[in-house]
Amino acid sequence: MLLPSSRSGDHLLETLPHWNKSQRWAIFLSLWLAFLWLPETAGFTLNCHKMCICASNIVSCSKMNLSVVPTGLPHYTTVLDLSYNEIVLLRSEWTSVKLPNLHNLLLNHNNLHFLSSEAFTYVKHLRYLDLSSNKLQMLDEFTFEPLVNLEILLLYNNQISQIDRSAFITMINLQKLYLSQNMISRFPMELIKERSRLEKLTLLDVSSNKIKVLPIDELRTLPAWIKNGLYFHNNSLLCHCDLYTLLAHWEIRKLNPVLDFKDDHTCILPGPQKTQVGVFDLSGESMNCSTFKEEAEETYLEQTVHLKCDTRRRNMVKTWMLPGNVLVSHGSNQSATVEPDGNLKISPVRSEDSGTYTCFAMSENFNETIYVVLKVHNFTMHGSGETLNTAYTTLVGCLASVVLVLMYLYLTPCRCFCCPNKGKTRGEDSIHSSMLSVTPTHEDPALKAELNRHVAFMDSKDSQGQNGKLNPNGDEDEDDQDAEAGSLMKGKRKKSVAESISSVFSDTPMVV
Ligand SMILES: *[C@@H]1O[C@H](CO)[C@@H](O)[C@H](O)[C@H]1NC(C)=O
Ligand SMILES: *[C@@H]1O[C@H](CO)[C@@H](O)[C@H](O)[C@H]1NC(C)=O
Ligand SMILES: *[C@@H]1O[C@H](CO)[C@@H](O)[C@H](O)[C@H]1NC(C)=O
Ligand SMILES: *[C@@H]1O[C@H](CO)[C@@H](O)[C@H](O)[C@H]1NC(C)=O
Ligand SMILES: *[C@@H]1O[C@H](CO)[C@@H](O)[C@H](O)[C@H]1NC(C)=O
Question: Ligand 2 mean position to 288 CA, how many Å?
Fold first, then answer.
């Protein structure tokens, strides 16, 4: 243990090199005496005897009932342990001096509920920051901004419900982010998805939060080395066969989140009871999800295909074997070549290229073998084009008929909304136009046309109904047919029925 006073003396001597030796000693002595006199108010230099344990560059103030961060921390501190205290806030001026060597800061098990947005401006070289087991509720945009060197950030067991989307964006060296046991309800996809992701992040833990929905399609396309460190068990996810399929795939790939926490992957069944079931039970009785099977890559003759060697670790050395255990070697005249990113490119594909390909991936302490099944269809894309052509023709046909119908509708004499002047000359039509004006003006003209057609079509029924009491039934039928359609459309249609009385006169002959 170092004496704090002698340490401060050294520091002074270094900073005042031009003073002569006796002057230096005088100052040193007077300071030392001052510390002897006022041991309690040593705001200038940390009193290691009282509050902390100082072991060269480690300052440990754990379990000292501190309510504020001690002042006067030595500038050479590399590890500062303030865990298990009663610290409530971390102000911007919690350290008055820069601590350029500080790389570990432990603040776990305090009562922190607030972090100043400038709390970390003097400790830019932090690599490890533990804020777990506190009472933090939100993470704003700027708090972590200076921490460009941070590698590990522990935020588990807080009460975080709000995270700004750019809260972590500057931490380009972040490798592990622990956010479990909070109240997060949104999955922070921006941290891991292509383009916006933190390049070095290999572990993201959002387990035991309040997430209801996962972006499953986006998760599916992530490389395996990201998925391998993506923990989201024990949330309030809604059950869905897609969720089961995703996790079943992860299980086959032996990814850690499923390997280590299989039983903790639960979800809530739809329905009022909110029954919680295991995701892996969804293929059984609870939801009858179809059992997951790894699918083969499919391609056609003469195409180019890229087979991925999607390893669970990054930066592995990859070699490929063709079906029949032929090694893909550099510079031979094989149609398959290994690309710089480790994927296998086959171009052009021949029918005998079907089969199981093997990728051996090696790194210092981990080896992995990945099998990819390739299925080559025995015809080219041209051959299969016929079905496409048929579909295309049908589509064009449909479009043409829609255009014809529209032309037909718009070219009929006097739709009142397109020639209001004419409408005013006749009593019945003026009623009609005022009713039409109730409908929103921003609606799609095509929709309007359809509406009008509908009006005319209902008219024939309606006129019958007025005589033979068929109208209510007709109306119900209409509702049944539209049960699936949007309520907006339904509303409009109902209105159109009301309008139909006024439009009997001019429209009936044209559409029916
Ligand atoms: C901390 O404070 C509590 C009560 O305030 C006391 O019981 C305990 O002894 C204190 N611990 C230390 C290390 O001073
Ligand atoms: C699941 O399938 C089984 C048999 O195929 C059937 O008896 C059961 O009712 C189905 N369960 C659900 C929830 O659909
Ligand atoms: C290269 O291709 C030709 C014909 O496609 C074949 O006869 C020859 O054996 C191949 N050479 C090697 C080294 O595979
Ligand atoms: C990985 O494979 C190589 C070559 O087969 C072997 O020498 C090495 O020991 C293996 N490493 C591990 C961690 O299994
Ligand atoms: C595809 O065609 C080749 C010969 O052209 C034949 O040997 C092969 O069996 C065919 N494969 C299938 C799946 O029909």
Answer: 6
**What is the enclosing helix (H) or strand (E) of 395?**
helix 385-410
Q: Where are the domains of the chain?
A: 1-45, 49-286, 297-380, 414-511
Fold of 297-380: Immunoglobulin-like (2.60.40)
CA distance 184 to 187: 8
**Per-residue pLDDT tens digits for 94-135:** 998 899 999 999 999 999 999 999 999 999 999 999 999 999
- Residue range 49-286 in CATH 3.80.10.10: yes
* Overall pTM surpassing 0.90 (yes/no): no
- Give yes or no for a contact between 239 and 213, defined as CB atoms under 8 angstroms apart: no
Q: How far is CA 412 from the centre of its chain?
A: 52
Ligand 4: which of 359, 362, 368 to mutate, most ligand atoms within 8 Å of CB? Answer: 362
DSSP state of 264: G
CB 85 less than 6 A from any atom of ligand 1: no
Q: How far is the CA of 334 from the centre of ligand 3 (A)?
A: 8
Does the N-terminal peptide bond of residue 100 adopt cis geometry, omega within 30 degrees of 0? no
pLDDT tens track for 367-398: 999 999 999 998 876 654 445 555 555 666 66
Ligand 1 pocket test, candidate residues 49, 51, 64, 65, most atoms within 8 A of CB: 65
pLDDT per position as a tens digit, 277-323? 999 999 877 788 988 888 889 999 888 999 999 999 998 999 999 99
